[in-house]
Amino acid sequence: MRWVAEGYSKDKDSDSADENGEELFAKITELSMIQPPERAIVTNMRLVWCQVSAFFHEYIISRPKEENVTFALEVFALKGCCCQTTGRSGRHLVIEKSWERDRIVFESIDLSRLRSLTVFGDWSPFFISQSMKVLRVLDLENASGVTDKDLHKMLKLLRRLKFLSLRGCSMIRNLPGSVSKLRQLQILDVRYTSIVALPASITKLKKLQYIRAGTTTPLENRKCLQLVGVQMASGVGKLTLLHTLGFVSISAAKGKVILEELKNLTQLRKIGVAGASKNNSKELCSAVSDHSHLQSLSVWLDKGNQGCLDCMPTDITGETSRPPKKLQSLKLYGPLQKLPMWIRHLCNLKKLNLEVDVLSKDDIGVLGNLQELCILCLRVNTPQDAPAVESPASDPQAERAVTQLQGTNYRGDSSPQEEAVPLGMFNFCVMTDGVEDRCYKKIQVLEIASRSMLHLSIGKEAMENLEVLKAGCCSTGSLPQFGSLNHLKKLKEVQVIGSLNDEQKRGLKNHFEGHPSKPALTTREVNLSAQASIAGNDETCSFPFTPTSPSCPAI
Description:
10 helices; three-stranded mixed sheet; globular
């Protein structure tokens, strides 16, 4: 998104600026100028982060200044202890966490040509100057100490901003109506702030393409977090250039009005809503089904509304409408009691995040037949007082029981009677007439977590391309159990999250030591502290579980 705001990626006749930016990113990666993280899974989904290759980085910083090796980028950084000098100037300034916040040094910098400012660590009010007249990008993600007063100053002085990120600035409680003065603004990111409503004047920003908002708060009596969307006034339908919108609350009085206006935003690629319920589910499904370009959908259900997403609208012939054909990412938090019927029609789905109460055998069959699915993340809320399950490796009777937990393959529109998988036991396997089918063919990442216990088995014909397996129990005293996984020839990494003692860790090591592909095994403890962080800026805080804090959804 920053590349678009800074003008490095522009619209062409056949491709959007976003698409051109992704193509450029891919080319730079192929040239090894930037590198993905270790053990990154290569799918069609976007990478979360990357870094400049060590060789290329050293080459840049080793060249004499007069060679101007950074070309038009002219990037410079403040770090450690810097002396006052008149030699610092450029278009892009990075203030690192290690820099001593020296006002005299900062004011000695020529900021008249500055196009972007990125701040790590502590914020200081003097970072905003009247001389920043051409600043286009202000990135304050996770900067500490940014206040509402600072934001007012930014909106007053930085009228040319195209990109504004306040993500993780939890002291920001209000987005002023003066944001409408930023007539060039394309990208607004206020996720994980304390902003609960966007001003009505935001609809005057006709160039807005991305609105990212919402935060997380602790749930009552549950050691995990729930997502809270921001409230929006009517008029969002005027922002016809929007590509991304979320998370927006639809549980408020004007929720149905907002959903109706979403139908006018024909360019939307990504939608996130919070507060789905039986009261607004019909309008939600209608709004979603109208978007032919939609690639990502995220929905948070209100408590007690688990079955509300089955109501896809019908057309004039009485036929049920289907979800957007181009949908690649679906996240449903809630939890659900069963999968919505329309999930089986998502033929292009590549990433699926689900929170469910029970995963039935029929559900396992539906998921197994999603032909393009690469990443599957599940959180199953089994009762914490359910009886423990012994490992099949040590109990033949349990092993025979697991082999009976096969998924049912769907044929046409038939809907066989559902049968729930016994609590905590999951066997990813699809059977047809007593013969195991190849299923989950493209799955490369499987994350599965249970609130109490977990026993995981994978069929011999399932997940042939699995590379990363993450399994966890989100309560103390529970440890994930595994059936034989030796048939997973491409398995590279196994992460186990639970309350493990030394003996259990040795047992896990022995279990995977003989695996043909020698996957890297890591174990992590579950921290069930009641003091849940709601900043949402920890990369480890991801669905369906988190090693170091209670589970929270990614926004």
